[in-house]
């Protein structure tokens, strides 16, 4: 794991771009209601990167897809609000949302080759993304496509436009997806596990390019990942999710130096560190709870080494501020020497 933690030096307050309030999202299956997101609250600020981290099934992607109302069947947002520029995205009509998708809020999907249509060329993909909002002609869209691919350092952009998705490597396909997302200089970019299928060298390259483009365009990025190394490299703030809940929320340096939730602490203990080569890795025992039958108590209770009677007898803990800007949902927090 890299120790190059993203800088969080104090700066002037940044304006809120996107706010998620008490979001509940479920998938209604034959087996029952899968409660994928359970009361999530998030704030995304301009010119910053918010990391969303957690193991598979924690609700990261379901939260992201809820924002743009892209949940696959049988998923549905049950309640909550998602405000973008004062408008609740869950209440605007489909045409209004279509004007926002891709232009003001863009998403980079987890599997770029799967997200691209194998039957049409890269050029057609990019031109459709640009022409969807009706502000340019086809020739201008093609020139803009070449410009975007050039910014991502793809070799011979005019030739890349003639290729089909299956003719690209994983890293090239991911850079094409980033170029498409940046086409209209969106206010918000949702990057969903964009490094998960890439080797370490390509991961670093993709993250560096995303950070550079984000700085140049002053976009707000929601970076979804299960990799704490990616969080350390890119994010200014972090929301740790478990079983559809945000269990800890703070700036990146605070999360790494003083994690208060036992789950966050366990995540950090389960990955190798270059600064502690002799430290034994400690896997997290047990498995995530069944999202169809969630307990009334803390969802991490069965796996938590610090669980007490208060945890077993009390309702699910709420996020509370334990230090300035550091929020934790836990009755029995990890203790740190002063």
Helix content: 25-40%
The chain-level structural class is alpha/beta
Widest sheet, order of strands? 6-7-8-3-9-10-12-11
Approximate strand percentage:
15-25%
Secondary structure: elements and pairs:
Layout: E1 16-28, E2 33-45, E3 49-53, H1 60-67, E4 75-84, E5 87-88, H2 94-100, E6 105-108, H3 112-115, H4 122-131, H5 138-151, H6 157-160, H7 170-181, E7 188-192, H8 200-217, E8 220-225, H9 228-234, E9 237-242, E10 245-251, H10 252-257, H11 262-269, H12 309-313, E11 320-323, E12 326-328
Parallel strand pairs: 3-8, 3-9, 6-7, 7-8
Antiparallel strand pairs: 1-2, 1-4, 4-5, 9-10, 10-12, 11-12
How does this structure look, described?
With 338 residues, the chain is α/β, with parallel strands linked by helices. The chain is 30% helix and 23% strand. It is built from twelve helices and twelve strands. It has helices at residues 60-67, 94-100, 112-115, 122-131, 138-151, 157-160, 170-181, 200-217, 228-234, 252-257, 262-269, 309-313; strands at residues 16-28, 33-45, 49-53, 75-84, 87-88, 105-108, 188-192, 220-225, 237-242, 245-251, 320-323, 326-328. The strands form two sheets. Strands 6-7-8-3-9-10-12-11 form an eight-stranded mixed beta sheet, with helices on both faces. Helix 7 (170-181) packs parallel to helix 8. The longest helix has 18 residues, at 200-217. The protein starts with 15 loop residues before the first strand and ends in a 10-residue tail after the last strand. The relative contact order is 0.15.
